[in-house]
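Example complex used in Figure S2.
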Amino acid sequence: MPGAFESHGLVAEVGDKRHQGPLAGLLPWFTKYFSWLSDGRSANADAMAYDYDKLYGETRDALGKPTSVFVDFFVQLDQQNVRVLDIGCGQGRDAIFIARKGHRVVGVDISTNGIRDLKAVAARENLPIEGVVADTATYEPDGMFDIVLIDRTLHMLVRSARLSTLKTMLDHVNEQGWLLIADEASNIGDFGSVISAHEATWQTEFSRRGFLFVRRS
Ligand SMILES: C[S@@+](CC[C@H](N)C(=O)[O-])C[C@H]1O[C@@H](n2cnc3c(N)ncnc32)[C@H](O)[C@@H]1O
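Predicted assembly (217 residues):
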């Protein structure tokens, strides 16, 4: 089991990218749309309506490096070739990193541009990634997964869809498998309630502001 995770701030991660010259123009966007990750305020209406498909259509690697807390998790994972579901994968910054570590990934996003970019990298590098264009609110995963990862996607959904999506994803985690969530800090309590009400038993293995990693017994 992965052990201690480094306490990287998400805004600091974004900062890694935004200080790179070519993307300096994205600084205001990151500051606006990711501010909730640093100060815990609710995502505003603009963020809820943000057009990621347009962003991906205009910008390669729009969200930068994979999220460092997830990187730490997969670096420390002692299992090989696990099956991973990345919900709201975007252009695949996490999915591509995970597949490069030798795991099989299904990436799902409502953005056709995001999935197009994900598939292009997978084809170029011959990575075991399947890309699916779907709305997570109605998407039913195909089979069971060792790890379901949801990196800052649930806050994009209205509350009822957010909670029903989470419930659906819990149903698709194998015994001893993991659900890894990064989201708005104020949503984490809701997620805990859905997980507690689920038919399986779940152990909280990592909980920090904006992150919740649970494992199925
Ligand atoms: C903040 S981005 C995070 C993307 C990716 N997880 C990452 O960390 O790079 C939120 C993602 O959720 C996707 N999304 C929003 N609503 C969705 C929905 N109803 N179904 C599927 N994906 C959705 C967006 O297209 C976007 O790629």
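The radius of gyration is 16 Å. The chain is about 40% helix and 20% strand.
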